[in-house]
Amino acid sequence: MPKHIVRLITLIAAVLVVAVVAPQLLTAKSFYRFGHYRANAVPEIAAKEPVYQTPRYCYGCHTERRAQWSAGSHKTVTCEVCHGPAQGHPQNGKLPIPTDTVRLCTQCHEAMPGRPHTQPQIQVAEHSGGQQCTVCHNPHSPKIAAAITKVSGNAAAGKQQAAACASCHGSEGTSPNDTWPNLAGQNAAYLARILAAYKSGDQTDPIMTPLAHALSDSEVQDLAAYFGSLGCKATNRGKTAGDAAAGAAMAKNCTACHGEGGRGANPAWPKLAAQKPGYVVNALKAFRAGLRKDPMMANVARGLSDSDIANLAAYYAVQSCPATK
Amino acid sequence: MKNDDQPSLSARRAFLAKLGGAATCAGAAVGAAALGVMPSVAAKTEPAADGASFPTKDYDWTKHQWGFGVDATKCIGCLRCVEACKAENDVPRNAHQFRTWVERYVHLEGGDQVHIDSQQDPVNIEASGSETTFRFANRYKDAKVYKAFFVPKLCNHCTHPSCVQVCPTGATFRTEDGVVLVDETYCIGCRYCVQACPYGARFFNEEKHVADKCTWCYHRITKGLQPACVEVCPVGARIFGDQKDKQSPISLFIRNNRVQVLKAEMGNAPNVYYVGIDKEVN
Hey, is the C-beta of B64 within 8 angstroms of any chain A C-beta? Predict the structure, then answer.
C-alpha cells in the first residue's frame, strides 16, 4: 500500500480511537444513566442535611411549651420561625430567644396595605407606647384570654344577691378592710369572669369557692352587672407599706392592660385605682406563686420582688377612682 | 476527461467503503476494549432502580411527582420564607440573590399603574436595617391604596424547562419526580440558563461560581419533610405535596381552587400553581 494511504488510514484510525475513547474517559460514569445529566448529582444533592428541623424535633424535649403553643392562636407559627433553625441544637447551645419582640412581631402584625383582613394587625405607634409585646402577650399563645367583654346580667337582680357579699366587700361594694377587694365600679366582665372561675374551680379561695358554687350562671352575671354599675367611692388613707413613687415607675408596665393610674378602660381587665393595697399584694404574690392562674400575670409577676409588689400596691392604692357612673 | 476515470472512481468508492467498515469495526473493538462495561448512550429508558431505589435507599423518585401551590390571598409579606430559604440552602447572604422572594403589588386610588416592589427594593432594605434580614417597609401607610397584595415567587420547576434546554453541559436537568436541579460540579458558569428562564428564577452564585436556583429543598422532600419555606410560612400561603397522591395538600389545593400558572403562553408548563393573583403578576 502506498505510504500516503497508510498515513491516512493511521490518522483516521487515531481520530476514531480518540473520538470513541475520550468521551468514555472524560464523561462521568452516571452521565446518561437517566438522561443528559450526571445521575449521581441527584443523591449528592439529596444528601444535604436539613437545617430547619420541624416542630416534631422540638417536641422531644419542650413538651410544656408544645402544650401551650399548640392550644393557642400561634399554632401555625412553628418554633423555628421565631427561634431560628434548630440544626445543631441542643449540642451547640441554646437557640436565641428574641429580645426585640416589637421588631419581630410587627414583621407579621404591623398594619400594612396588602395584608389580608384576616391577619391581626396593629398600628405600631399607637398600640403599646413602645413597650415590648411580651409585656402583655404570651408569644406562645398570644391571644389575650377572656376577651369576653359583654355582661348579660341584670343589675337590679344582682343587688338582691349582693346582700350576701356585704360582710366582706362592703354594703356598696367598697370594702371596709384591707384584705378584701373593692368591687364597686369594677369592670363587670372581669367580675363575671373571676366569679365564674371560682364557680368552675379554675380559681380557688376558701371563702369564695363555696359561695360561688351556690350561684347559678345567671346570678354570676347579675352580680357582676350590679357591682359594675356602682360608683367607686373608695379612698385609701393612712400608711401603706410600699413606696408609691417607686411603684409609679414600675406601673408603666401595667398601663397597657390596666390603664393609666389603674383606671383601665379595657373591660376585660380589672381596674386597680384605689384598690385595697393588702388585696393587691396578696393577688400579685398568688400570681407569682402560681396559686392564681393567668398566663399573662404569671409572666409579669415572676419578675417582681416583695418590695416591688408592695410599691405597686401602694401606688394603685393612692390613685383616684375613675369618675364613672 | 480521460477514459480511465470511471474504473478509478469505482475503485476509490470501494476503498472508502472498506475503510469505513474497517473503522467501524476498529472503533467498536477499541470502544469495547477500552471500557469493559460501557454504559449505553441511549439509556434514558433504563428503570430507576436495579433492585435498589434511587436516589436514596429510602426514597424512590419514580413514586412521586412534586407540585407547589401559592395562595396569594393568605400571604402577609412577613418574608419568613425568604430568610428560611437563605439559611436552609446556603444562599449568599446579600440583598440581591434569592431562590425565593416575595413581590408586593399596589394599586393607588386614581392611578392606572401598579407599583411593584420586593424585599430587595432599597426602601425595604433600609427598613430591615441589614442586607441579611428582610422586611417590607410600610411605605404605603399614608397613601390611598385601592388594592394591594403580596405574591411569593420561586422556581416553577417547569415540565419543559427552558434552562435545561439551553444548558450546554448537562449541568441542569429535570428529575423523574419533577424537580429541576443544578449539578454544581458540571456547571461551567456560562449563565445561559439565567438568561433563558422566563421567570427570573435563577441567579449566578458568585461564591460558588455556578448557576443557582430553588430545588424545592430536594434534600428535605426526599427525607419526607416539607421545603423550608413551606415549613416556616405562618399563614399557609405556600402548599407543597405529591401530585401522584390524590389526597396530598397540593392535589387538594389544585382540585379545590381555580388555579393558574405564570406565563402559561410560554409553553414551559410550570408546576407552581397560583391562587389570588391579578393579570399584572407574571
Answer: no
- Report pLDDT for B7: 59
Q: Is residue A159 part of a domain?
A: yes
Q: Say if A41 is an interface residue toward chain B (CB within 8 Å).
A: yes
Q: Is residue B124 part of a domain?
A: no
Measured between alpha carbons, how far is B11 from B14 in angstroms, rounded to an integer?
A: 5
Q: What is the CATH number for A254? A: 1.10.760.10
**Positions of chain A with pLDDT under 50:** 325
- Determine the distance from the C-alpha atom of residue B156 to the mean position of all C-alpha atoms in its chain, rounded to a whole number: 6
Q: Note whether B84 contacts A20, CB cutoff 8 Å.
A: no
- The mean per-residue pLDDT over the stretch B149-155 comes to 97
pLDDT of residue B48: 46
**Which of these, B166, B179, B198, B90, lies nearest to A49 by C-alpha position?**
B90
User: What is the rounded CA–CA span in Å between residue A165 and residue A183?
Assistant: 10
pLDDT at B2 over 50: no
Average pLDDT over residues B120-136: 93
What letter does residue A252 receive in the DSSP assignment? G
ipTM score of complex: 0.81
The three cell numbers of residue A201 are: 374551680
Give the mean model confidence (pLDDT) for residues B236-243.
97
Tens digits of residue pLDDT in A274-285: 899 999 999 999
Q: Which residues span the domain enclosing A184?
A: 155-229
Q: Is A248 inside any structural domain?
A: yes
Which residue, A182, A202, A229, sits at the end of a domain? A229
In Å, how far is B98's CA from the nearest CA of chain A? 17
Which residues are CB-contacts of B214 (< 8 A; sequence separation ≥ 6)?
B85, B99, B100, B154, B155, B157, B201
CB A37 within 8 A of CB B187: no
Among residues B224, B223, B52, B237, the alpha carbon closest in space to that of B154 is found at B237
**Out of A9, A29, A54, closest to residue B39 by CB:** A29
Between positions 230 and 259 of B, the ones with CB within 8 A of A are 231-232, 234-236
Last residue of a domain, one of A89, A104, A119: A89
Instruction: Tell me the mean pLDDT in the region B151-156.
Output: 97
Residue B42 pLDDT = 42
Closest in B46, B73, B215 to A33, CB measured: B46
Contact A126, A157 (CB under 8 A): no
Name chain B contacts of A51, Cβ cutoff 8 Å.
87-88, 228
Average pLDDT over residues B21-34: 59
Number of domains in chain B: 1
Residue B15 has pLDDT above 80, yes or no: no
Q: Can you tell me the distance from the alpha carbon of A138 to that of A296, in angstroms, rounded to the nearest whole number?
A: 6
Domain-located, residue A105 = no
Structural domain that includes position B170: 54-93+153-282
Which residues does B261 contact at the CB level (< 8 Å), separation at least 6?
B156, B269, B270, B271, B272, B273, B274
Confidence band, pLDDT 50/70/90 cuts, at residue B25 = low
Tens-digit pLDDT profile for residues B204-216: 999 999 999 999 9
What does the alpha-carbon distance between residue B281 and residue B275 come to, in Å, rounded to a whole number? Answer: 11
Chain A closest-CA separation from residue B264 CA (Å): 25
Residues A128 and A256 sit within 8 Å (Cβ to Cβ): yes
Q: CB contact, 8 Å: A38 with chain B?
A: yes
* CB proximity list for B47: less than 8 A, separation 6 or greater: none
